Amino acid sequence: MTTASAPQTSADPTGSVTVIPHIVAGERVSPQGRTGPVFNPASGRQSGEVALASAAFVNEAARRAQAAQRGWRDTGLGKRQQVMFRLREIVASRAEELARIITAEHGKTVDDALGEVARGLENVEFCTSLMHHLKGDYSEQVASGVDVHQVRQPVGVVACITPFNFPAMVPLWMVTTAIAAGNAVILKPSERDPSAAVWLAEAFAEAGLPDGILNVVHGDKEAVDALLDDPIVRAVSFVGSTPIARYIYARAAENGKRVQALGGAKNHMIVMPDADLDAAADAAVSAAYGSAGERCMAVSVVVAVGDVADPLVAKVAERIGGLVVGDGTDPDSDMGPLITRDALERVRGFVAGAADEGARIVVDGRELAVDGDGFFIGPSLVDAVTPGMRVYDEEIFGPVLSVVRVASYDDAVALINDNRYANGTAVFTRDGKTARQFEYDIEVGMVGVNVPIPVPIGAFSFGGWKDSLFGDTHMYGPEAFNFYTRRKVVTTRWPDPSESQISLGFPTH
Ligand code: NAD
């Protein structure tokens, strides 16, 4: 592992602080009350100041969104599709600009940020076919002279509340489909890296989206609570940590809104005795330490079955030695800093606690030598981890990979199925029967077979089970078109007046 590079960043070379505005009804609105600091994690310096909306500001934004939504609902599907096509071209042609904004506030490498943009774009591409996704159903002659059809109508105003770790991709998961379906959106991005959301709103506007259909309102709990309570908001999409997801789900549902709330994760990767250990070690290192472990689909636990543990741990440790930790704008960096100083201290605490609880620290990321004040920590590898240790039981959300040793496939499956999180998992094996059995047995929402980060492509939908998702609808893809529309079923008869009669019986076929 190399020393973190000196924090030369493109984001705050002058040390100036940028004011990050809301976007409401097409206008940039400067902070009017409370604000919060935004940091460049590579330098540790404040680079921005973001507005934190009051409840009254949120309520006014919701009112403006509602007023705009009526016109958008009336806009022909072909015109809506054209917005999606233009948006696709804008984001694709300026991907690097967006990626650098992400890196400046999140810290991930520019390469990784480009990957985030590409995965977000899949959702735009899926929505270029919105005319197909919004098609209704028709049944002719369900009774004599009676036909039935179903249409999809937008729900109205939708709130999208997003986490810090994918400041462009997760907003694109949500807002793209919500808008394609004819809704107006209030996007409340993470207050820790809010600039990507502003960039996206301006890209939508450039693509021809009318003012007021995508509003960006920054804020913290006060703004979120106002969205959850405002009767204008009819649906809430949330991605973030499990305690907040549970809270969002309960409060929004209490207020009669439809809600999908995706939470945290603890993703296990099983390595079977027949697996190719070099490929498994490559996959574990990539999936554990990419984006400094700040991915909801990061592998945080390797489950080593049988006697693979010793050679596998050695191979992972060897690969960690080759990773370069540094400023995300440096093309040589494999891994950037964590999002905040608090996150850094938290992750350090997990590594320290693991040693105290009897786990074996094979690689200690705290030993990384760092120049400057950036929020850097190196990758850690912790062996002999068992359930009951904090390092196993809690989501760390940092570059710490635990290894749990088990005797058999059955023990591995039982371990995963006992975990309260169930976002993603993977099995590494060369045996098709084992892989098929794993897919069948495992109680997790997204499964990889020799694929460590099985994020579904845009034509499927994304979501975990258990404490990783509250609600029953997954993000993006076909399920999102269900979430963001209300189905209306119309039963039609065109009778001859001469056949009309009174009948108090319940209508049957
Ligand atoms: P977070 O829960 O702290 O914040 C998410 C959003 O909730 C932010 O917009 C934040 O402003 C808001 N929020 C925070 N505290 C709140 C409160 N008390 N009341 C109301 N709103 C509040 O999550 P984060 O730290 O930004 O993101 C990391 C977490 O997100 C991790 O747990 C990660 O696993 C999870 N995540 C999950 C998925 C998934 O698909 N399941 C995807 C990405 C991230």
UniProtKB/TrEMBL annotation:
SUPFAM superfamilies, sorted: ALDH-like
Xref: Gene3D superfamilies: Aldehyde Dehydrogenase, Chain A, domain 1, Aldehyde Dehydrogenase, Chain A, domain 2
Keywords: NAD, Oxidoreductase
Aldehyde dehydrogenase domain location: 31-490
Source organism of the structure: Microbacterium laevaniformans
Entry coiled-coil feature ranges: none
Family matches, as InterPro entries: Ald_DH/histidinol_DH, Ald_DH_C, Ald_DH_CS_CYS, Ald_DH_N, Aldehyde_DH_dom, MeMal-semiAld_DH
Gene behind this protein: mmsA_1
Protein name in UniProt: methylmalonate-semialdehyde dehydrogenase (CoA acylating)
Regions that span the bilayer: none
Gene Ontology biological process terms in this record: L-valine catabolic process; thymine catabolic process
